[in-house]
Amino acid sequence: MNMDLNLSATIPPEQHWKSLKGDEGNALEALYLLYANPLFNYGSKFTSDSEQIRECIQSLFVKLWTSRHSLGNPENVRNYLFKAFRLALFKEIKRRQTQKEFDQDDDYV
């Protein structure tokens, strides 16, 4: 196990969240190290497209960083991240499905 992950695991996620809101980039990394793999496993329940899952995880953490000043204080960081990820993944699955259907319709024109 990575030393950074060991250190990250000893600090409560809520503390990382607070540090993230205080512009500490290492807090984002700590949250990523804690949750990227569990989020990937969770996403695998909904799609077998591993690239799509990785893109949604990356987008989630980019969005966390860019909106860190306006983030609230969730009671449970894990639940917040999983819900935000699930919503983003479902939105992307639907977008790709719609694009695929649109592309198929173009074949008939």
Q: How many helical elements?
A: 5
Strand content: under 5%
Radius of gyration: 16 Å
Low-confidence stretches: none
CATH superfamily: RNA polymerase sigma factor, region 2, helix turn helix motif
Number of domains: 1
- Structural shape: elongated
How many strand units? 0
CATH topology value: Rna Polymerase Sigma Factor, Chain: A
Rounded average pLDDT = 88
Portion in helices: over 70%
Distance between the termini: 55 Å
CATH architecture: Orthogonal Bundle
Secondary-structure element order, as H and E? Answer: HHHHH
Q: Can you tell me the CATH class?
A: Mainly Alpha
Biggest beta-sheet profile: none
- Find the structural class using helix and strand composition: mainly alpha
Keywords:
0% strand; 109 residues; mainly alpha; 5 helices; single chain; Rna Polymerase Sigma Factor, Chain: A
What does this structure look like?
- With 109 residues, the chain is mainly alpha-helical.
- It has helices at residues 3-10, 13-21, 25-43, 50-66, 77-108.
- The protein has one domain (3-108): RNA polymerase sigma factor, region 2, helix turn helix motif (Rna Polymerase Sigma Factor, Chain: A), CATH 1.10.1740.
- It has five helices and no strands.
